[in-house]
Specification:
This protein has helices spanning 8-18, 93-96, 100-106, 119-131, 149-157, 177-188, 203-215, 229-235, 253-266, 275-278, 285-293, 308-319, 323-346, 365-376, 382-388, 391-396, 443-454; strands at 29-36, 45-53, 56-62, 73-76, 81-84, 86-91, 109-114, 138-140, 145-148, 171-174, 195-197, 220-225, 239-245, 269-271, 414-417, 431-436, 439-441. By secondary structure, it is α/β, with parallel strands linked by helices. It contains 17 helices and 17 strands. Helix content is 37%, strand content 18%.
Length: 472
């Protein structure tokens, strides 16, 4: 079956509707008389002006001191607040589909770390974004998931009717150290930014993956289920996703703090994705089924923007819920929150990610939910939570010279808010304008982008169909 299932007219309609703003060249822009929350650690600067030219910030300072270039597009920032563009540090765009890229941007996400999917199409979408042919955030890609051979065999043997994901294009089996070296050698030849481990066959294979990646100059990030923290540190894994499992409950606080200090010293960052539990597992089945079935967005307007494939995958995820799983996740959540309080104390880089593609987690907007959880559950100040989605991930990813803060010379990724996020982190939802790589999406352009998503072909028909065994 062809993977391109739509006519040129439908595809063109989607492009026209969704790219009204991003297809224009970067403008000369001045956001005048705004409060700047730079993300650098400096105090907020009220009554300031930010000037953007050629896609970069050329001036930031008190309005009285900043000259606005002739012919600039002047945006009134009075009573508003400007923050750096947000980072989504854990998403699966293949499952959310291409239309989701627009939803990240309209929710202020200007950089996205994809954590496993169909690499061929992800590369294509990334290139379209780079060239201005598709509205979307800057994308960093892991390529396909690295999985234990046993897990991949189980997935491939699961009937198509029970598993929608085209696992033959997303999951790479790694069953031995020799296989690990072969897989890493192959993936290193692709345009990947790091490698993502999801499940591992055994410790020897795990260590072989990380060692082979290091030889190719690639970081390894991912799950650490069943892998001791000491092994993660010694092997050289760079990032930890979700929770530590087992959750170290048998250790004393001082013993855990010693581990967290070693994480910090090794430069290992953590993306807890708390929202993946609170929204995907904790609600009762009736609530989750209602979300899946709510195609008109009557209960949650965000539901209207979910692709057909995502709905199919969510429906499967609802069937996986049961009382035992919920009880386990509640225990893990409590342990994870405790660990995060301690990690914060120890100085471990904690970064915001929502695990987009998981049930009831929405592209872009669920990152706002995650920021609220970091404040409410982990005790972060609103400034720390903002930094967990701006400066901290930019530094972790080696991008701090160009993005993550509002400073002269940086790429102009900016979000203009109607309320002060330092007074209430929930104000990150109150977006007036997004500037992505110097291109301005004002309220009209943001609405046009939303309409473009609603017109996308993948919201009308599943465009990511798994092959049946007889088709291969």
């Amino acid at each position: 079956m062809s993977r391109s299932r739509y006519g040129r007219a439908g595809a063109w309609l989607f492009i026209v509707c969704s790219l009204l703003a991003c297809s224009l060249p970067a403008q000369t822009v001045a956001i005048r008389d705004v409060t700047v929350i730079s993300g650098t650690g400096a105090p907020s600067l009220a009554h300031a002006t930010v000037v953007v030219q050629g896609g970069r910030i050329t001036a930031v300072g008190p309005t009285a001191d900043v000259a606005i270039p002739p012919g600039a597009n002047v945006i009134d920032g009075s009573g508003r607040y400007v923050i750096p563009g947000l980072f989504e540090m854990h998403a699966h765009v293949s499952k959310a589909r291409a239309s989701s890229l627009g939803m990240f941007v309209v929710n202020g996400v200007t950089t996205l770390r994809d954590m496993g999917g169909d690499h061929e199409e992800l590369q294509r979408w990334r290139e379209e974004v780079r060239r201005g042919g598709r509205l979307g955030p800057r994308m960093l890609l892991a390529g396909p998931y690295l999985e234990s051979a046993r897990n991949v065999a189980r997935m491939r043997n699961t009937p198509v009717e029970e598993m929608a994901e085209p696992v033959e294009r997303t999951r790479v089996p790694v069953g031995s150290p020799a296989r690990a070296r072969h897989v890493v050698d192959s993936l290193s030849a692709l345009e990947v930014d790091y490698l993502k481990i999801r499940t591992v066959e055994d410790e020897a294979t795990y260590r072989a993956i990380v060692a082979a990646a290091r030889e190719h100059g690639l970081d390894v990030v991912g799950h650490v289920f069943g892998i001791a923290p000491e092994t993660v540190i010694d092997a050289g894994q760079r990032g930890v996703e979700h929770v530590f499992y087992p959750p170290l409950d048998s250790l004393s606080r001082d013993q855990r703090l010693a581990i967290w200090r070693r994480l910090r010293e090794a430069g290992i960052g953590v993306v807890p994705t708390l929202v993946a539990s609170t929204l995907s597992v904790f609600p009762p089945d009736s609530v989750l089924r209602a979300v899946v079935d709510d195609s008109l967005g009557a209960g949650d307007p965000r539901r209207r923007y979910v692709s057909v494939f995502q709905r199919l995958d969510w429906r499967e995820q609802v069937t996986e819920q049961d009382a035992e799983r919920r009880a386990l996740f509640r225990r893990l959540f409590r342990s994870s929150v405790r660990n995060l309080w301690e990690m914060r104390e120890a100085g471990v880089p904690i970064m915001a990610g929502s695990d987009v593609a998981v049930l009831n987690v929405f592209p872009g907007s669920s990152l706002h939910d995650e920021l609220e959880l970091l404040v409410r559950e982990v005790g972060m100040t609103p400034m720390e939570a903002l930094e967990a989605a701006t400066r901290v991930p930019a530094t972790f990813l080696g991008l701090a010279d160009s993005v993550g803060t509002i400073e002269r010379g940086k790429v102009a990724d900016l979000v203009l808010l109607e309320g002060d996020p330092l007074a209430d982190i929930g104000n990150v939802r109150r977006i007036h304008t997004v500037v992505v790589r110097g291109r301005v999406l004002d309220p009209d352009a943001l609405e046009a982008a939303r309409e473009g998503v609603l017109a996308a072909p993948d919201l009308r028909e599943n465009d990511w169909v798994r092959e049946k065994s007889g088709d291969r």
